[in-house]
Description:
Number of helices: 5
Radius of gyration: 16 Å
Low-confidence stretches: none
Order of helices and strands: HHHHH
CATH architecture: Up-down Bundle
Helix content: over 70%
Number of strands: 0
Structural class: mainly alpha
Distance between the termini: 28 Å
Number of domains: 1
Largest sheet: none
Amino acid sequence: MAPQTPAERAHLNAWLFFAQSELEAPLWNKLKHRMLLAEEERVDVGPWTTAEFTREIRALELRLGEHEYAMGDRFTAADVILGHCGQWARSARFDVASDRVNAYFDRVLARPALARAKAREEAA
Length: 124
């Protein structure tokens, strides 16, 4: 559901910026240094990315609070991006050391629309 007010739009934008600049950053850095950069440009970023990711999972846990989704009780684009980060983290074997965040990722990643999108992608 789209934001209904300027305050809701600002809240959504804050979530999107958090997801991509904070939560996704350690995932992307690890991927670059493990697979994408030329061998001579790679360094061991494992300890740093683990520490950064752990810190951002704690921040995500605090920001989510008791809400079902990022914007409260309704699913938004923020949940799509955060869920993508969760799926990426899990497949890259980052430890999501929060029961609340794991439950959130499970809820977001279990949505029927995501299953349909994956099926279309596999069929293409």
